[in-house]
Amino acid sequence: MNALTLKNLTVPGRLRDVSLSLGPGRLIGLVGPNGSGKSTLLQAVAGLLPSTGEVLWNGRPLAEIPILDRGRQLAWVPQEVHFEFGFSVRAVVAQGRYAHGDDDVGVEYALARMDLTSLADRPVNRLSGGERHRVLLARALATDAPIQAWDEPLAALDARHALQTIALAHERREAGGTVVLSLHDLRLAHRLDEVVVLHDGTLVAHGAPQAVLTPELLLTVFGVAVRSGPGLILELP
Amino acid sequence: MPVTLAGFVALVILSLGVGDLWLGPVRIWDGLWRNDELASVVIYKLRLPRMLVACLVGASLSSAGLVMQAYFRNSLASPGLLGVSSGGAAGAVVAIGAGWAMHSLLVVPAMAVVGAFVATGAVLVLARSGASTERLLLAGVALNALLGAVTSYVLSNFTLSYERNAQIIFWLMGGLEDRTWEHVLIASPAVIGAALLWPLGRPMDLLSLGAAEAQSLGVNVRGLRRRMLILATVLTALATAVAGTVGFVGLVVPHLLRLLVGPDHRRLVPLSLVGGAAFVLACDLIGHTAGNLRLGIVTSLIGGPFFLWLLRKKP
Predict the structure, then answer these.
(1) Domains, chain B, ranges and CATH?
(2) More exposed terminus of chain A, fewer Cβ within 10 Å: N or C?
(3) Model ipTM?
(4) Which residues of A touch B262 (CB under 8 A)?
(5) Do B220 and A74 touch (CB under 8 A)?
(6) Sign of the C-alpha dihedral, residues B283, B285, B288, B290?
(7) Does B180 touch chain A if contact means CB atoms closer than 8 Å?
């Protein structure tokens, strides 16, 4: 059964008739120019935006899933964060256990995975942008939800934390989870299982990165030409 | 919490003891058990109802402020600044000015609730949740001015009765003078409101960091917000109906508590109830030992500078 199924998903003015099936145990990248509907798609999939069409999680229509259960099945990481109140990093990560009755299971592990253990008692409104994003990723990890929807998780991160995040996504996939993340780095997109390309709110292509991200598509959708040559390839030591 | 409770109990004893006739703890005790006739009359006729109204008003306004801050995700939101208190006052003033208040004791609080809900509705239209401080404060400024105009209109058009005007002035400058058991009764539903607020602490934690985030983590945001808004509005209206507009309680108390114990709403909800009651008791004590300053004046004298300090501190 598919982890995520979208049928004619439409958000007025932002997303038009997107139909997709995403399997379990897959790592999927969502790419497209600014304003192409990546964030909108992730939010609609997470049930956070009014939309028409159908969204199914593990074959079950989203509308039939009680909100508390949703918190256990899908973790969404927003693209922008603003923390008004000075909760500690640990307290924010522990919010990921809300739908599990605040049992705090896996909170320390999530903190450690995102290199936050030393910052655990720091108020979140005194962190840098990248640190705040790591807090949100740790919170998503703490939910232990099988479906993870991350909106540009890499944009604010330094090179090492970006690679760690990709490694983490691979781990979730190995464990049978589904990870959908939007990203701008088309080279990093090649490290994922599947790529979904959005343009002006419509689905343009979906498939393996090598098959989808062709020079023709990159030129028409992104307006960039491809040239291979000596470049910098970064990986975790 | 133990410190707050101890302070609260001390203030309760003080507020029963301090006045034209000073009563020590022993006489208060005797008075409460009616073993001391004079003390008994002073306590039961004057000080106990006033003390209880002060507690109810303080707990209501402070918890309403806490709820509004979580709702709007802005630590400067509060019943006074957003105009909800003014809405309640305008409702009460209209009821008095039009002479409806004579028919039943419940008319003024009912109209205060109506007025407060109208104001809350307007704030919601003007400033959605997560609104910037500027937007929120400007909405409050506009609303306070508009509701002030309503009140002035009533004042200028019903100048016939000196007594009514005196009553209206009372609502404009909140105070606790001559509060009776009737007022305790009117404000008492606040206890139910406070009880309903109790379980909302945890979901309010999540909501205070973002509505979409909270929903994605399993919080029924729509239901939670509706409950928060109704509770905050009713609590503000009840407080306003018995004490007039008492500013800054909902701003100062949650802020001080956050500085002391952090932003966890599971602790802040009970603390804001006790702390709010203690704050208003203290302000009332200061007011009538410093030569009959009205409660609303004292809270504004403390809250005004505090608010300016917060505004300066905020990025």
Answers:
(1) 2-313 (1.10.3470.10)
(2) C
(3) 0.92
(4) 86-88
(5) no
(6) negative
(7) no
